[in-house]
């Protein structure tokens, strides 16, 4: 892992391979470790940058609230540090929200955009209430919250099929600092609607949705991609498709990037 300084905050990232740049943006309670398998597929053809977001992995916290725009500004600072002009963005879950914020703020720096198990819509009023409840739980017992939250991310069959990987995922999530968890929840709660980007942005776009995703329901994504110029792939499994559908995700993404990356 390498580091760079962003507004007196140390950010950790990896930078592997050569070619057009692909920027991997992980989700809530995740870190760049989640992209290891995909990186191994991509680094033979692309320059693959994977970053620990603010308050996640080994990167430090920046504030009490990490908005999607805060994270996007950090990503822009990173690609500027690396002297990259255009990147293909791949975002999982919260990483997709951040990728969309980046695409809105820095459209000239986007070559293509891939959202996996993510949404362009803001939180509903009910979801915002649930975020506040989650923050209360986190303040009382962050480990209990993380264990409960990670269990809900996977399809029921996955707990038997991928028990070791899910436990490793959970152990990595447990390292997320309390401030980082709360800052991300607060940031996701106030994110804005970016569905217009699916319709009016000029670069190629791909959305990958899972049949049994309880966090980002498939029907919601179907509604968002209707009449939008977006490639759309539906795969089996739950929310963390990089674990449950590792090979399929790699095939879909490499195929898309070969045409558009």
TrEMBL record:
InterPro entries associated with the record: AB_hydrolase_1 (IPR000073), AB_hydrolase_fold (IPR029058), AB_hydrolase_sf (IPR050266)
Membrane-spanning ranges: none
GO MF: hydrolase activity
UniProt keyword annotation of Hydrolase present: yes
Pfam families: Abhydrolase_1
Keywords, sorted A to Z: Hydrolase
Residue span(s) of domain AB hydrolase-1: 20-243
PANTHER family in the cross-refs: MONOACYLGLYCEROL LIPASE
Name of the protein in its database record: Alpha/beta hydrolase
Organism from which the protein derives: Paenimyroides viscosum
Lineage: Bacteria, Pseudomonadati, Bacteroidota, Flavobacteriia, Flavobacteriales
